[in-house]
Amino acid sequence: MTVFLVTAAFFAVILGGLPWLAWRVRRTGVGAGLMGPFEEVWGYPEAHRARFEIEVQAERRAPAPSPGDPPE
C-alpha cells in the first residue's frame, strides 16, 4: 500500500510540476530547450516550430559591411 502511495505522489508531483514549468518558461524565456520536446509531443507543435525558428535566426551572423559602407 505504501509503495502505491509513494508512486502516486511521485506522478502527481511530476504532472503538477510540468504546467508550472511551462508557465515559467513562457514567462521568462529560460529553459526553452527543456520544454521543446514536451511542447512537440503534447499538442503544441507550432510552438516547437516557432522556438526552433527563433533559435535559427539567433544563430545567424550579421552580414559583413561592404567596403564602401559608411561606419555606423
Structure keywords:
single chain; 72 residues; mainly alpha
Give your account of this protein's structure.
The chain has 72 residues and is mostly helical. It has a domain at 17-56. The protein is 72% helix and 0% strand. The protein is built from 3 helices and no strands. The longest helix is centred in the first third of the chain and has 27 residues, at 2-28. The radius of gyration is 21 Å and the shape is rod-shaped.
Lay out the secondary structure.
Layout (H helix, E strand, L loop, with lengths): L1 H27 L3 H10 L3 H15 L13
Helix pairs in contact: 2-3
Amount of beta strand? under 5%
Helix/strand-derived category reads: mainly alpha
In terms of quaternary structure, what is this? single chain
Helix content: over 70%
H-E string: HHH
- Overall shape: it is rod-shaped
Low-confidence stretches: none
**In this structure, how is the largest beta sheet organized?**
none
| Mean pLDDT over all positions | 79
* Tally of DSSP β-strands: 0
How many angstroms separate the termini? 71 Å
Question: Radius of gyration from the CA trace?
Answer: 21 Å
- Number of helical segments? 3
Brief characterization of the structure:
By secondary structure, this protein is an all-alpha fold. Helices cover 72% and strands 0% of the residues.
